[in-house]
């Protein structure tokens, strides 16, 4: 079982963010978009989906599991775009 599912109390909150990042989560997005372009993130995410859908991985062996993966893919795409929009808006406001 995946640790994220086995330990829901631990993983129901941010575990990878530093204290500073928890206090300023916008900074995480700003750093991501300083390092990566939005199209690159789309590409990396799609590559991960392709690997999952085309490999012999037991976690994606039935159609429902693959369908769930695609739904999550769409959710992450929307999150990337929302984060990109927030960072872009902040940069434009700071520039004025």
Short recap of the structure:
The chain is mainly alpha-helical and 96 residues long.
Order of helices and strands: HHHHHH
Q: Tell me, what's the shape?
A: flat
Fraction in beta strands: under 5%
List how many beta strands DSSP finds: 0
User: Based on helices, strands and strand pairing, what is the structural class?
Assistant: mainly alpha
Query: What is the mean pLDDT?
Result: 88
Number of domains: 1
Polypeptide structure, described:
By secondary structure, the protein is an all-alpha fold. It has one domain (18-95). The chain is flat, with a radius of gyration of 16 Å. The protein has helices spanning 3-6, 8-11, 19-23, 25-35, 38-54, 63-95. The chain starts with a helix and ends with a helix.
List the main descriptive attributes of the protein structure presented here:
single chain; 96 residues; mainly alpha; flat
Question: Secondary-structure blueprint of this entry?
Answer:
Layout (H helix, E strand, L loop, with lengths): L2 H4 L1 H4 L7 H5 L1 H11 L2 H17 L8 H33 L1
Helix pairs in contact: 4-6, 5-6
